[in-house]
Amino acid sequence: xxxxxxxxxxxxxxxxxxxxxxxxxxxxxxxxxxxxxxxxxxxxxxxxxxxxxxxxxxxxxxxxxxxxxxxxxxxxxxxxxxxxxxxxxxxxxxxxxxxxxx
Amino acid sequence: xxxxxxxxxxxxxxxxxxxxxxxxxxxxxxxxxxxxxxxxxxxxxxxxxxxxxxxxxxxxxxxxxxxxxxxxxxxxxxxxxxxxxxxxxxxxxxxxxxxxxxxxxxxxxxxxxxxxxxxxxxxxxxxxxxxxxxxxxxxxxxxxxxxxxxxxxxxxxxxxxxxxxxxxxxxxxxxxxxxxxxxxxxxxxxxxxxxxxxxxxxxxxxxxxxxxxxxxxxxxxxxxxxxxxxxxxxxxxxxxxxxxxxxxxxxxxxxxxxxxxxxxxxxxxxxxxxxxxxxxxxxxxxxxxxxxxxxxxxxxxxxxxxxxxxxxxxxxxxxxxxxxxxxxxxxxxxxxxxxxxxxxxxxxxxxxxxxxxxxxxxxxxxxxxxxxxxxxxxxxxxxxxxxxxxxxxxxxxxxxxxxxxxxxxxxxxxxxxxxxxxxxxxxxxxxxxxxxxxxxxxxxxxxxxxxxxxxxxx
Amino acid sequence: xxxxxxxxxxxxxxxxxxxxxxxxxxxxxxxxxxxxxxxxxxxxxxxxxxxxxxxxxxxxxxxxxxxxxxxxxxxxxxxxxxxxxxxxxxxxxxxxxxxxxxxxxxxxxxxxxxxxxxxxxxxxxxxxxxxxxxxxxxxxxxxxxxxxxxxxxxxxxxxxxxxxxxxxxxxxxxxxxxxxxxxxxxxxxxxxxxxxxxxxxxxxxxxxxxxxxxxxxxxxxxxxxxxxxxxxxxxxxxxxxxxxxxxxxxxxxxxxxxxxxxxxxxxxxxxxxxxxxxxxxxxxxxxxxxxxxxxxxxxxxxxxxxxxxxxxxxxxxxxxxxxxxxxxxxxxxxxxxxxxxxxxxxxxxxxxxxxxxxxxxxxxxxxxxxxxxxxxxxxxxxxx
Lengths: 102, 458, 384
What we know:
With 102 residues, chain A is mainly beta. In chain A, 6% of the residues lie in helices and 27% in strands. At the A-B interface, strand 1 and strand 5 of A face strand 9, helix 4 and strand 10 of B.
């Protein structure tokens, strides 16, 4: 799937490697997570209350629409966190498996 | 009282000028900012490793941006600067901060809120689809990350930012599908006398418009937004609107930048118990302050767009002025000439602000026309119909009550992007002016607080 | 000036007042309810939403049981959905001696209807695998549950209005007098209301009115501390609360089907009674975060997205003031529910309507009488 965001400049930066939903992707140093994910995909997370996907909204840390998860469940706001080598991001909520019995 | 603990929240144009003025008077403030770098939103600095120059980044505002950044760089070592720190709550005399998963408190004798603004939004059917962004967000994408929010972008809403961002997109090589402004030309002409308060800025605005026309971007004035089209899987597919001539027009696009000027970030002032005032011109609530930025609560001050939307230039003046007000209150000598200069500049900008409000009015009538199926609250996915039912069936004619019943404004964004439009929907349904349905009360945390947060002694 | 008359005037439109108005109308009594602000604005609308019987004072269980019968019938009774879920309630503890106390409670004859089951050790962690290792035991109440407090009082008020009750919001009482057989209530906007019976359900402000009739009570006010997380998949249906004598260990949570986890407990704040606003103390939230991670370790990654407080009235013995006045005929009270009135609401309404309508009630409420705070006669004369 083509990316949602389009790079217009500043493309000479070193690359950073991360994993998104199990697949390796390449981003550029200084990219926000949001840009890293959306230059290659079309959404950041599943909406809780409908079938839609969410791809952020305000890009300034105000709307809280762009939270993604690390594989271990840590929350990251995609518009205000930069990419780092080795980040393992998932775009669906990890708590779907609370340790439940009965 | 040279030892007064002064804390400034926000390192945008107001906060930086405030800190600079205080430092010049021998007061070393603590400057807390949520962002990693100074500059606020409008003069946001690009990340390290980016190479575009000031003119590319800030266009006609390049000199101001450079000056602000350089001022800050000079200050930085002399003040207590705490970036990447969210003030998530406060009590009288104490701020609650969270930074990188750690919680700490900061005591203050004087607090100066330079908390800035966010885009002001009016919902439209389909605006929850992926690919709809706030206008300011679209600008940040370009300025901070050198990306466009889509392959083909529609700019919709009203206000000077609409033209500024669209023209920045054109200049950067993005494809702009259309610029759709809800305000008609007639209002702009009527507002001319007030806009002439700042002829330079007016001229810049006209130049932007000319650039768009030159680039053959379709610009429609006096439109009525109908729908962001698309589907759940792929997000935005286009925009449908009623043109000024009454015809329904569809524009294909995969991204929409949406915004109607700005709304102030007043949560901290609200939590501090500051009185709020309804501004008739822009039809929204903001912090009530005197001309110099004193709020109703002793020791709490506000400057910049976080208290009153007047733009970045005014924020610099207001930042200096509020610092002088604090110095006065601390019985320190104040440069009267500097004070008068700020006040005179702000008077001109107030006049211009009124012109902008007249030329690009908040489209309250859209709330009434919003179909029942349209989502008002994106966080909680609550529709206009659901909100209207709380008015009709449950008698909730007050914003906080309607929130309690409907959940509009209860989500992660704390009503930043829905509560003003929600108030308009409620007011329209109840048949009363919007100021009579109240405003959503601020609640902590100002932004989400991670439950991994550890407490550290301050 | 026109005077409006009814069989009963109720002062205070929280859950108690609204429910009583509803049940009075079902008994055919005419009723006027006066609320200074909005229905259910203070304690009633901001509490945790626990529909819990277990853990209550044993002498209160008869009332709680009566209320539970009503909760079960609520949607049909008031034609409204309060999001009541009889999800089960688990009262857990961190120490063995506390497990013994839970066991003793479960064995009390008054608690028979609750069908409590004690869990401990491996069995507990098998059944409630999400609880932290510090949890040593717990008492499970299968019929208890939770509901949405924001909706409750207004829904009862609307149901009462549909049955013919007169409810006046934003109507503040300025003066109450007994003139002959009637109470004369004057509001700050100059209106007058009269009734032979007067019910004070003014919550944290109840004692201001009871004092006017020579029955002061040592009511204290507290702001509950509530927080809610972002929504996460709905998987924790049971309400969990910690039983402990250490205030900061007190924590309780419930997940709503939309996914948010509502959290309460720990420190309380002192409300601003002048401006009628209660704040959340930041240290409460930090404490809740710490306590939640101990109780539900999996919660650590979540974000708190909103916190709130309200204004609750407490009596020193943690029991409400409920029943007839000890000094004035026709005067009744139901206030000061000490942070645990939500579950009781429908029952209190039903009992008070019965009491006002018939002069007595089949549910024992003597322990809650205001006369327990009456001063001996000689002290009363000294005080005046």
